[in-house]
Amino acid sequence: MRVFDKNSNIFRLLSESISQGILVVNEQQEIVASNQRSDQLFGYDKDELLGQQLSILIPSAQREKHKKLAEDVYWEDIGIREMKGRNLSGLHKNGEQIPLQVGLSPFSLYGNKYVLTLIEDLSEIKEKDNQIYELNTQLEKKIRLRTQELRDTVAILKREVKRRKEAEDKIKDALQRERELNDLKTKFLSLVSHEFKTPLSGILTAATLVGKYNTEEGQGKREKHLKTIIGEVRRLNTILTDFLSIERLEQGKEVYRLADFSLSKVVNEVIYDANMILKDGQKINYPQNIDDTIINQDERIVGLALTNLLHNAIKYSSEDTEIDFRVNLSENKITFHIKDQGIGIPEADQKHIFDRYFRAENVLLTQGTGIGLNIIKAHIENLGGSIYFKSKENTGSVFTMELPLART
Ligand code: ADP
Known about the structure:
Helix content is 48%, strand content 20%. By secondary structure, it is of the alpha+beta class. The protein has 3 domains: 2-121, Beta-Lactamase; 128-227; 255-404, 2-Layer Sandwich (Heat Shock Protein 90), CATH 3.30.565. Strands 1, 2, 3, 4, 5 and 6 form a 6-stranded antiparallel β-sheet that branches. Strands 8-10-11-13-12 form a 5-stranded mixed β-sheet, with helices on one face. A two-stranded antiparallel sheet has the order 7-9. Helix 7 runs antiparallel to helix 9. The chain is rod-shaped, with a radius of gyration of 56 Å. The protein starts with 8 loop residues before the first helix and ends with a strand. The model has no long low-confidence stretch (mean pLDDT 88). It binds adenosine-5'-diphosphate. One of its GO terms (molecular function) is phosphorelay sensor kinase activity. Its EC number is 2.7.13.3.
């Protein structure tokens, strides 16, 4: 024991020359030697630790664990045993905990067992670790923030690209529509000029000829030319009515009037007019079952639609053909069928027949505007009805129109 006396020069010489703390503990866990570094580390005065239990330097939470460790150490072979990395800490006199790295070296002297403990203060390293950890955390935070900012910017950019693409598409659409409109205008103007030119020159010729037949014998011929004039004027009138209808329909200005009217009266008028334009040998088979029938619908539209369908049947059929005009009445619906033995509609064109200005390729040499069916379809649908057809080229067509009835 003398070797650890406070005045022992050998111990002092050896222990004070190194930078680590040194503690020597006996089997009773009493501190029997402590160098200056140890005293400083734990905040004790010189020699104050001597004779104290080692446990005063161990935080209470670790004491139990340390006790077990100490018991094991005395039975181990002599040699330094590192307690590095075990998250050790010592207890400073002021109650603060100090992170430590400890090396244990058991030895025997004069029949007694001791443990020499080399103590390294890790406070500075821990402090650095903490700083590094802190810096890392801040860096990670910054990276997260920047990544988020980047994501947000990418999202904004994507939205912007999408917005611009949509705007571009809109402009393209508008341009396309503008082009189509221009095409339509051109088509429309040439159509109008063409459609008006023929009847007008017909009227001019007929009127000139009428003037030439000034004798009584020429009455028959005069009447024939007058009939031509009336027919052509009617045609012009129909075309103009169609154009006006388009405008009214498009602006939603069309007004429908549902009222009771005599079905046979309207059908008679329509057939009477149609008879005027029949070709040689053409015949319209009058519907059988409509006498005394009063229906509630828009009389003007029914007349307009039937006129249109009948005129087409006549126009697109040759001489010596028949046109069947049939009517089916049920409690809440009236159905008209107009069947001809005409040129029919080529299959490829059938899906476009109700498109405005559309004309099938087999009628291009016959006069027409491609407006009539488009207009009557709009009217019929506005009234809650429908129109459809079946057709075979060179055999004939049958157009069917259905209209709802409020009451019969
Ligand atoms: P338009 O007769 O003035 O050309 P419509 O709108 O009345 O215009 O008809 C559109 C097109 O439908 C016609 O150009 C023609 O090709 C076709 N069509 C209509 N009715 C008949 C029919 N009864 N037989 C053959 N084709 C028809």
